Amino acid sequence: MGQLLRELFSIPLPGSILGLMLMFIALLLKIVPLEWVDSGAALLLSFLPLFFIPATVGVIDYFDVFAGKGAFLVVVLILSTLLTMAGAALTSQHLSRRFEAGKERS
User: Fold this and answer.
1) What's the pTM value of the predicted model, to 2 decimals?
2) What angle do CA 7, 11, 16 make, to 5 degrees?
3) What value, to the nearest 5°, has the Cα angle with vertex 102 and ends 97 and 104?
4) pLDDT tens track for 65-96
5) Residues 9, 21: contact at Cβ < 8 Å?
6) How far apart are CA 80 and CA 84, in angstroms?
7) Taking the CA of residue 34 as centre, how many other CA atoms within 13 Å lie in the half-sphere pointing to its CB?
């Protein structure tokens, strides 16, 4: 459906992204019940690490790019991981506080 919309309206987004957005909207509006996609999503999530293997192996083709910059890349990797973890933690704390505050008002 996303690919069809992309071709019909010349939308400069991949069809898979448009399809994902359509699925999100359908789930949000309860057009598609969550039970219909729950088991399929759980199956895909169980195999999710396998989807990263080709990308990881593909990095080997660019060894010359990473050679000599290993220490810098390790620092960038650690910092970006810490920033992501901090951002996720702060976001979840903020949402948790908002949820609790909403419960107290009810």
Assistant:
1) 0.50
2) 75
3) 95
4) 777 777 788 889 899 999 999 999 999 999 99
5) no
6) 6
7) 3
